[in-house]
Amino acid sequence: MIIQKIFNNNAIVAKESDKHEFVVMGRGIGFKKNVGEKVEENLIEKTFILKQKDASEKFKLLLEDIPAEHVSICYDIIEYAKNILGVELNDYIYVTLTDHISNVLKMFDEGFNTPNILIWEIKKFYPKEFRVGLKALEFIENETSKKLPEDEAGNIALHLINAQGKNNSSKVEDVVHQTKMVQDILNIVKYTYNISLDEKSISYERFVTHLRFFFQRMDNVEKAENRENEDDFLLKQVKEKYKEAYKCMLKIEKYLEKKLSDEEQLYLTIHIQRVTQR
Questions:
Q1: Angle at 92 between CA 161 and CA 36, to 5 degrees
Q2: Which keywords does UniProt give here (predicted)?
């Protein structure tokens, strides 16, 4: 393993034979070292292997400006998140979350806190990610002795939610927008039926989960012809059986300003029927 670049005493870029370059961190791993020398592998504490080239290059640029301590904290948060959430996270999470947390810590030192206006929705719609965010605050406090507000757990959760998407160009702002849309749709259902929804029910959880993934699929216009025919047949039956739920679905379609496929109309109608039944 050969040193390719030295950021500081504790962070370097290394390469092993013809494999990808990767960032290596460890106390004193770059101290009095030169490019081309072998890495003292016993000093390695954390290894970042970013397969996406663009994410890797941006991460290296980040390392030139951000304290190694902040990078190390984010590494631990991301690894913890992967284990708890059980999902793949996009490589860009190492860039976006590290940059975000480092900025938050700097602002904290200057006496500024950034409120999260969606904290309530995040707690309700993304409970797992929010719990990881709360644990992240513990990591940060243990390492820096800085106690960040609960709102920051919501901000961290947004980054984790965003990193679960396959589209690298998606932004945290998109997740914020989608979260608001989920809330709007739930309100349409509540006002149409003039009821409060049981947020602890399985039907409610399934409905919210369906909406979350629905927004990720909205731009996918590919349709299988045989599936469309099947959905059209089922939709006609559901439309007749669950008339009020179907009307509510049409209100949601109007709100979205988008013509939904038969498949989406079908599943939305069924979810509305289930979530409004006691």
A1: 150
A2: Repeat
